Amino acid sequence: MKTSHGHPADTRVIVGVSGGVDSSVTALKLVEAGYQVEALFMFNWSEDEAGRCQAADDFDDAAAVCDALDIPLHRADFSREYKARVFRYFLDSYAAGRTPNPDVLCNREIKFDAFMHHADRLGADLIATGHYARIDHTGERPRLLRGLDPNKDQSYFLSAVPIEALARTLFPLGEIDKTDVRALARRAGLPVHDKPDSTGVCFIGERDFEGFLREYLSGRAGPVRVSGGPLDGRVIAEHSGLIYYTIGQRRGLGLGGVAGAAEGPWYVVAKDLGNDTLWVSQDAAHPALEQKELVAAAPHWLIEPPDGPLRCAAQVRYRQAAIDCEATPLPDGGIHVRFDRPPRAIAPGQYVVFYDGAHCLGSAEIQAAGGDAKAAAPPQRVTA
Question: Which of 159, 217, 299, 367 lies deepest, with the highest CB count within 10 Å?
Fold first, then answer.
């Protein structure tokens, strides 16, 4: 694939379309800018497995949009790659007691790898997606920047994408707000202008998450114990499997009406895999939820990798704010992060993403909270 960012009229851009309003307006803006635009719809999940998968309907919506824009529409089936490189890792992580982030994996393995290679075969100069993020292409190395709409910024999910892929990518929505996106779609007469946004994990959709996991993994029952307070150490219930819970979880614990406990929510504060014990507390500021350190594995840098402590900011979940920190490389190739103030509920398997202002510097998969460098390493990356 060529990397030229020349005159739009001489540049063929393959847009990843999903049948939603974001990718549709991405294609619209590129057409209006004068690029040679073609679209590619990705089938990432088999209909016979999902049951409720909307891929066929979404493809019809994408086709209607491409007809309205008078651009070619291609289709590609990446379900085999998705299963081997994203879903298998997703299951292995949950089985190991972690909370993986499949959106980060999907971007790295599918949208900016399998899709990009397919676009190459279609003769693309560049690719484009409907992500709310920006890329500064003016320097020798592209800089991934937050999208200007703070409520939609998706740079967190793009932090593991190879820098070589970012150099060949356009994000036309990075400079605008979501409300403007819908207005543009309506004004252009795109048939998806009022289509609801998709929510949840792409291969799960609106289904009950625990129910979905139970189709693939069997949890092992164990005790639910209280950490701290007057009921410290007491068993108050039985859980059906640690794999169904994540650090900081509040909803879906089913712990109402515990004798001797105050009225109020419970929080997951720890998972003891060795003893199949789920530790909970009614203290929203429990020390386990307010840790200032973490260890992460194999950082992926979008800048020149630091050879010593790096002052920056970092966030440990998509919807959390970035917090000032010091990130220090470790001899084993991992990284230790110490925050100036504790982020909420650090969960192994999620990603710590580093920023300098709006500039996304890279990311790493969280291995353990509290700076415990001896925690088990994450599952190995699986490639097709």
Answer: 159
Sequence ranges of the domains in the chain: 9-209, 218-287, 290-369
Q: Which residues are known binding-site members for ATP?
A: 16-23, 42, 130
Contacts of 69-72 spanning 24+ positions with Cβ under 8 A: 69/27, 69/28, 69/31, 69/37, 69/190, 71/27, 71/31, 71/37, 71/38, 71/39, 72/38, 72/39
For residue 370, what pLDDT band results from cuts at 50, 70 and 90?
confident
Give the helix/strand (H/E) hosting 155: helix 155-158
- DSSP output for 271-327: EETTTTEEEEES-TT-GGGS--EEEEEEEEESSSPPSS-EEEEEESSTTSPPEEEEE
Residue-level pLDDT at 256: 82
CATH superfamily, domain 218-287, is Adenine nucleotide alpha hydrolases-like domains (2.30.30.280)
The whole-angstrom separation of Cα 15 and Cα 25 is 10
Region 178-203: mean pLDDT is 87
pTM of the model: 0.91
> How are strands ordered across the β-sheet holding 73-77?
73-77, 36-43, 12-17, 126-128, 169-170
CATH level 3 topology of 290-369: Elongation Factor Tu (Ef-tu); domain 3 (2.40.30)
Binding residues: 16-23, 42, 130
Higher per-residue confidence, 259 vs 54: 259
More confident call, 371 vs 124: 124
Residue of 66, 106, 312, 325 marked catalytic: 106
**9-209, which class in CATH?**
alpha beta
What per-residue confidence (pLDDT) applies to 348?
Answer: 96
Measured CA to CA in angstroms, residue 21 lies from 25, 112, 197, 277 at distances of 6, 20, 8, 44
- Please report which confidence band the pLDDT of residue 199 belongs to, taking 50, 70 and 90 as the band edges: low
Facing residues of 290 across strands? none
Query: pLDDT at position 211, please?
Result: 80
Return the axis-axis angle of helices 21-32 and 55-69, rounded to nearest 10°: 20
